[in-house]
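ZP: hey, is the 5'-O-[(L-methionyl)-sulphamoyl]adenosine complex queued? I don't see it on the tracker
AM: it wasn't, my bad. submitting now with these inputs:
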Amino acid sequence: MDKFYVTTPIYYPSGKFHIGTAYTEVLADAIKRYKTLQGYDAYMLTGTDEHGQKIEDKAKEANLSPKEYVDLQADSAKKLWKEMKINYNQYIRTTDDLHEKAVGVIFEKFLKQGDIYKGEYEGWYCKPCESYFTETQLVDGKCPDCGRPVEKMKEEAYFFNMKKYADRLLKYYDEHPDFVKPAYRKNEMINNFIKPGLEDLCVTRTSFDWGIKVPSDPKHVIYVWLDALTNYITALGYASNNEELFNKFWPADLQIVGKDIARFHLIYWPIFLMALDLTLPKTILVHNWITMKDGKMSKSVGNVIYPEQLMERYGLDVTKYFLLRQVPVNSDGVFTPEEFVERYNYNLCNDLSNLLNRTVSMINKYFDGNLPVYNGNPNDEIDISIEKEAEDTVKEFENLMENCEIANAIQRIWGLVSRTNKYIDETSPWSLAKEVDGESEEERKLRKEKLKSAMYHLVANLKEIAILIRPFMEETSNNILRQLGISSENITWNDLKDYKNLQDIKVIEKGEPIFMRLDVEEEIEYIKGLMQK
Ligand code: MSP
């Protein structure tokens, strides 16, 4: 069985996660489920990034020790992922003993190799971002990443010799076109950071205490990004006395990160791996953000939506569907209450739910709920074309998923949903079900055969749709399959291959609609109300 190792960034446990933050997790979960359905031995890692000054400050504010604070926060992160049915295999905390020890080993290795050297650092420091900037990197004298004020700081520190690896990294980018997706992110790194001259990275701090100490010089705390990035390998036991998981799963097949942390993952992370003489991950996917009409989601602006709020009212599948469908490859995805309600009413209710409902009703009406057997040969152009559309959808969906274009992949499924709805109009089963005055026996047979074929193709397409949406809408997938009389227990991606094999289906029972139309105005008001809380 082929393995598939997927990682999310480890989250800062510094407050409640809003729908934007949850996006990376939902995306990774969907891809993991997809790979599992395809038969991979898929392993997903997530966790929390618990060291650093920001956390130390937050704990102080809450009157707790840093450890007490991160324990609480990690628990609430795990609780949310559980509610969202995130199917991770492992949760790493950077305060785990195993991780802390391994980071110490890694640091000392770099030091011994001469990749890390001791020097003095002076620069502009942004506390919330835990990053130093040079004078020229500042924007209007403020942090270029978050726009907040920076302060001048100077300290004795250790540095990682990034310059040494710059050319090797460029060569690697060049020779591995799949390493960074989408490719334009790689060009941003080259043009904004590498070509202008990669600075050595300051990898220790003395200004605070809450972190992993340099084993050979414990007044220095290891920079939170060196500590955090290595989680992807320490979680698997790298540099411990049990490297079994590491040997099995490394290199990662897919590492997913938001665009704000692209620089750390596309430059520093591969360089650390090169310095450790380890294979680089196959692909690092940089995704865009969920934003609000008035820009970034933030508590101070009062435009934050939490996943629990959407899940409570609309369900988990709707929340995941919206998030994944909303973020394109080339730009951020905007959350608006209007679009949320519109997608619910059109994509889920009108298109998907009605398709199922119409199909199930017709089979009940025309065949007493028994899926008719038909002669198996599409009897005209309409059937040939719907079969081709179903086949193409799977291929195109797989290609888009392979390329990590999940919003487009989902959109492709809805292409099939629309096409299948259109198929109902094209075949107009209600006319096929009617006796025609003066028709011959042969004409009557053909009419019946066409009706059977229409029902059969509708069910085959719905089954395919239910499987395709399964990685991110499991409950809906189960509901569709249940109404079609198909057991969802052992469904795998293989079931898509034999698209027209519906042998197991006997009786199709009419069920409740899977999505009910929302009152547009009422729901928009409701969601707007959430943002003000
Ligand atoms: N701790 C670091 C990651 C270290 S990995 C070695 C971190 N944590 S975070 O909690 O701030 O972010 C976690 C993830 O949430 C990141 O992928 C980030 O891009 C993502 N998002 C935060 N806000 C987001 C949106 N509004 N939209 C989409 N993703 C967003 O960074």
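AM: back. The longest strand covers residues 116-126.
ZP: great, adding it to the tracker
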